[in-house]
Amino acid sequence: MTPDDLVRKYPRLWHMAEDGSWQSIVDHGLLSTSSLLDLYQVSGEEREAIERRHRPESVEISRPGLPGAVVRDQKPMSEAVLLRRLDEMTPTQWYASLNSRVFFWPELYRLHGLLNAGPYRDAAQTVLTLDTRSVVDVYGAVIELSPINSGSTIMAAARRGPLTFSRIVDYPGEPKRRGKPGERNVAEIAVPDRVAPILDHVLTVHRVKDGAIVEELWRSPRAGPSDGTPDQFRKKAR
User: Fold this and answer.
1) Number of separate domains in the chain
2) Domain that holds residue 210
3) Which of 29, 62, 129, 212 is the most buried (most CB within 10 A)?
């Protein structure tokens, strides 16, 4: 796959953030879990538990002078299943790997799945819509693509390991388990460490609850009329 292929196939990216986090994202960028822990100076056993072990529940962190932050849970991940489906890595290494990246959905139906998941559907969420071209122009050399939802082992969990994430030019990465050979759809797009400054790439930001827009928090002059429409968050288009 080429960068232009990626942009053409997936012109928009979406990220679901904790409600109330938009101003902090503006101030510090969209951070991986590890970078967020650096910012909040979390260390020792607390950091080990958040960064390198399974998180059954979301974790609140704080630091004087900064607003409170939340590190999301990993409820879709079963460590028992992970142990059976993980290649050439330990669970500790896998969690650390995930926590070092910022993740985006390249298709709306994947965002809908997260918005409608049990732990999140009844609470407002902050949804960022980003311009793929802008992100690729800046981060193209380090962007990684995954053919699976790397943070979930629900249902028929795919195998995963060091080959799950591929640079754009190396995609599709892991071979298909079934079906015809060829380029796989991209399930996730990841950027190591952080995306900052975020306003260079975001088109719209909305508070979304129960599939409806509660509030538009920000809109770039570059956003199109179809960016952040009510139907985007209501329908389960695929």
Assistant:
1) 1
2) 3-29+101-234
3) 129
